[in-house]
């Protein structure tokens, strides 16, 4: 009885906690990690491709938009490109924490991305393409969050935070579309 009591201090499995000291090469991934690590890494690499493509699309729109309200559009496009870069960095870092390798291969970027690239010259078409891409990203993150559930709270929380910014982006694009 004493051994069981000492192994379950305060309702925690002390033996499992101490086991976390093993396998130091696994970094942040302990024995208690419950998600399918390889599947999470694959999802994150697709999200990374999506963010990278969004950066490229927003940057192109930033540099090429013309016409009425283009100054306001340029400001939004640049801000969104910078925020998408932050998302890409966070996702790449999480992939590394999970002992994976972030895939930055430009040859397969478009195929892996959930969103599409846009090379429109019309300002309204640019905004529409960005709104579509934001909605695609929101739905992608929503589905990833549902699949991960409580199995990987760190990744889930990161995705929830990123999705909230994507929702703000969608609102911004909707507002620009109405101009």
Automatic annotation (TrEMBL):
Presence of keyword Iron: yes
UniProt keyword annotation of Secreted present: no
UniProt-listed SUPFAM superfamilies: Ferritin-like
InterPro entries referenced in this protein's UniProt entry, alphabetically: Bacterioferritin, Dps-like, Ferritin-like, Ferritin-like_diiron, Ferritin-like_SF, Ferritin_DPS_dom
Top-rank taxon, per record: Bacteria
Family matches, as Pfam families: Ferritin (PF00210)
PROSITE patterns reported for this sequence: FERRITIN_LIKE
Record key words, sorted: Iron, Iron storage
Residues annotated as domain Ferritin-like diiron: 34-179
Family, per entry: Belongs to the bacterioferritin family.
PANTHER family: BACTERIOFERRITIN, DNA PROTECTION DURING STARVATION PROTEIN
Protein name: Ferritin-like domain-containing protein
Source organism (scientific name): Massilia agilis
Lineage of source species: Bacteria, Pseudomonadati, Pseudomonadota, Betaproteobacteria, Burkholderiales
């Amino acid at each position: 009885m004493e051994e069981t009591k000492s192994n379950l201090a305060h309702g925690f499995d002390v033996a499992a906690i101490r086991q976390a000291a093993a396998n130091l090469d696994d970094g942040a991934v302990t024995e208690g990690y419950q998600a399918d690590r390889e599947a999470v890494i694959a999802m994150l690499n697709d999200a990374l491709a999506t963010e990278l493509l969004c950066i490229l699309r927003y940057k192109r729109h930033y540099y090429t938009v013309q016409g009425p309200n283009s100054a306001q559009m340029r400001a939004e496009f640049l801000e969104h490109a910078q925020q998408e870069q932050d998302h890409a960095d966070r996702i790449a870092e999480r992939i590394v924490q999970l002992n994976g390798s972030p895939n930055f291969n430009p040859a397969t970027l478009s195929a892996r991305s959930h969103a599409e690239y846009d090379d429109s010259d019309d300002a309204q078409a640019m905004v529409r393409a960005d709104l579509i891409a934001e909605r695609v990203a929101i739905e992608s993150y929503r589905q990833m969050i549902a699949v991960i559930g409580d199995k990987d709270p760190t990744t889930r929380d990161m995705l929830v935070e990123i999705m909230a910014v994507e929702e703000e982006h969608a609102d911004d694009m909707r507002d620009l579309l109405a101009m």
